[in-house]
Design a protein that fits this description.
Elements (H helix, E strand, L loop, with lengths): L1 H11 L6 H8 L3 H13 L3 E5 L3 E6 L6 H8 L8 E7 L2 H10 L7 E7 L17 E8 L9 H19 L5 E2 L3 E4 L2 E12 L4 E11 L18 H5 L5 H22 L2 H9 L7 E6 L2 E10 L5 E5 L4 E4 L3 E3 L1
Parallel strand pairs: 3-4
Antiparallel strand pairs: 1-2, 4-5, 5-9, 6-7, 7-8, 8-9, 10-11, 10-14, 11-12, 12-13
Helix pairs in contact: 1-4, 4-8, 6-8, 6-9
Bound molecules: biotinyl-5-AMP.
The site of biotinyl-5-AMP has 28 residues, from α5, β5, β8 and β9.
EC number: 6.3.4.15
Protein name: Bifunctional ligase/repressor BirA
Keywords: ATP-binding, Biotin, DNA-binding, Ligase, Nucleotide-binding, Repressor, Transcription, Transcription regulation
Length: about 325
Amino acid sequence: MRDAILTLLLEAGEKDISGEKICEQLGVTRAAVWKHIKALREDGFEIASATRRGYRLLSMPDHLEPALIRHAAGTREMGQAIQVYDSCDSTNLRAKEWAAQGAPNGALVLAETQTAGRGRLGRGWNSAKGQGLFMSVVLRPPFEAQRAPILTMLSAAAVSAALEEVCKVQAPIKWPNDVIVNGKKVCGILAEMSADMDNVQWVVMGIGINVAQGIEDFPEEIRDKATSLLIETGRSFQRCALAGAVMRQLEQRYDQLMTAGVGAVVDYCRRHSATLGQEVLLVTREGKYKARAVDLAEDGELIVENEQGQREKVVSGEVSV
Ligand code: BT5
């Protein structure tokens, strides 16, 4: 009900919506509407009310609210089915559980904080309460498992484009899964998948974006490489608006991938790369070696040139500049 009332207030925008209209549309009593408006106000929503004219939303707190995210996204699928946790172990774990129970394509799990936020290869993800976007989206692409890595790049491209749009910053992609602002990591992505012999059943795309942390909010050992949007721009951003923008970008790019193939994603990542042209240290299963990142292949693999001048493709692995 809270969600439905918020949605009506958001749709009314700058206009008032009468209590009567809310009652009619939602089939509830005046008293019930009043109770929810009161609860929303207690949670920091500023709602004007005038007899006969009705209610109007003036300002919102920076809570993770499904109605705000859905409204900001304006999407068909991505970020429409939403679960929000105040605290959970890891949104990836919650999303995997939901996916196994049949969550639809685009289902989104968010948390104010995570007690066991995860990076790749068993590493952790620092999840300062209320200061970041910790979210995982369920994707159900109709293709085979070996094509799944493109979805990590697609998500990185969606975050990069959303940050450029909302925060007006340059946000290049460090292949394959980091988004960088002014040389430091503002976002990391962790993809996990379930597939059978033929097809992907689901991919859970975990996205962590640092929004409002100060440098002292990061543990000392990552202060030289981590940053937040607040640190880099000096500005605060509504996390729901940002989550909505990421969902919108994700949907556009996902639809394009399904209809026209990988070209646009790879092209975006090529044009917004923090890796190409750099000397990189590749950390692969076979060991560590230095090379120069020269291009992205047509299907998104990184092309590197080693010290002997030989070129090769890297499918996955880690790159440190
Ligand atoms: C990643 O791993 O970058 C993937 C991070 C994915 C996080 C999201 S949050 C929502 C969802 N739920 C989860 O449990 N995870 C996903 P990797 O490339 O392995 O980078 C991890 C490394 O980044 C750590 O070892 C630290 O050095 C550093 N790090 C940890 N927390 C960070 C933060 N908040 N910002 C920047 N760097 C961080």
